[in-house]
Specification:
By secondary structure, the protein is of the alpha/beta class. It has a single domain, classed as TIM Barrel (Alpha-Beta Barrel). It contains eleven helices and 13 strands. The longest helix is centred in the N-terminal third of the chain and has 17 residues. The two termini are about 20 Å apart.
Length: about 350
Amino acid sequence: MTPNTLTLTRPDDWHIHLRDGEAMQAIVGHTARQFARAIIMPNLKPPVTTVALAQAYRGRIEQALSACGISKTSFTPLMTLYLTDNTEPDEIKRAGETEDVVALKLYPAGATTNSDAGVTDLLGKCSKVLEMMQRVGMPLLMHGEVTDPETDVFDREALFIDRVMIPLRKSFPELKVVFEHLTTKDGVDYVREAAGPIAATITAQHLLYNRNEIFKGGIRPHFYCLPILKREVHRQALVEAATSDSPRFFLGSDSAPHAKGLKENACGCAGCYTAVHALELYATAFERANKIERLEAFASFRGPDFYGLPRNKGVITLTREPYVVPLEVPYGSETLVPLAAGETLPWRMV
């Protein structure tokens, strides 16, 4: 029998986009309200490529939190560096000597929003950097898609495993790797069985929806993200992985804000905004799988354990009562549309 309330050790979000400036100030409170820590993506313009830039970005995040009335002690941004073909090993060494940077992010060039400065040949151009990362214990967070234009968009993740992930793991077997926003059964099978320190994050949208959701009644741009929603067999595999006992799968929302006009556009942006109701979405997915009791491990324990960080001390409570997802939320001088806007979810965070 499903309980009427659910109390969890306060969770963390191991993959979030906060943007910068006015946009960040409008939304940072959503993440800080639900999570104790979050790994902040570095794909700004220009990208966050050095420790100094990461420290400056963290300072701006903390200023935005203060403006929202949120103290530094209640939410911690965990910073990352954007890996490029020109990243120097000495920068990784500097990152390893500070607590301000916890990981590097791999964007294959052209894979998603603001990825133009991404890597064009991981092993060919970044081997010295990867060697240093392995030496200092710095995790590599991987957007796991190939980007060559002849590859079907629904096959990009599966091909990434063969072309990039397997060769990488053979060359650097002790490198800590996170296969981010996993979307396929191929990815689940690989992460579950691979040797060495590897894990994966899973988003709420990929647990709740398959690719049909993008086309119900017409094009629905607010369900468009990259990696794109996949077939039902892949969604089911993700649910099985998230609700299993495996310590390798944990919460990473990949919440990605875009102004309404940029989504509802002839060439709309990729990204689903879930920060305002992430835990309500995840609880809904776990309840539908009849595994609500597994949510705490997925949301609160496995991520810190993989990163070697302490589990949080506080708690949050979800209560069984209807939560109507807002149709829009403020986004600086504009608005943005959350995932599943207008729909009613069965859980609400207290």
